[in-house]
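Troubleshooting log. The previous structure file for this entry was overwritten by mistake, so regenerating from the original sequence record. Sequence copied from the archived sheet and checked twice against the printout by T.R.
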Amino acid sequence: MEKVAIYARISTDNLGQDVDRQLHEVREYCQRMGYEIVEEYVDEGISGATRSRPELDRMLKDAISRKFELVATLELSRLGRSVNNMCEIADLFKWKKIHPFIKNQNIDTSLPVGEFFFNIINSVAQYELELIRTI
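Regenerated output below.
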């Protein structure tokens, strides 16, 4: 049984964002796949552009000790919205043979096409952040 960490984040509750919905959907997916959820990491009220987030930092520390083999999140933008930061996270995961799975975009980085789409969607997430900042 594959050991999975779940990561969820909301930047604000003013926009109708709900971390419970994220967790529910990802838990449901993990259950269907027969994965063992070993930890959930949840950052609330923190922008995805912020490099250091308490639960993200804790998850990355646990990744170094390889507490899990897969990180599941609802959307790539939940992990981050900075291409540079996301590349660092992806490099750490790759080094530790941990694969991110992005449920809503169906991105599985254990496959070459998944890694390709991970990088494309990562760039789109940063672009969206820049658009939000200009409004």
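The chain has a mean pLDDT of 88. Archived copy saved in two places this time.
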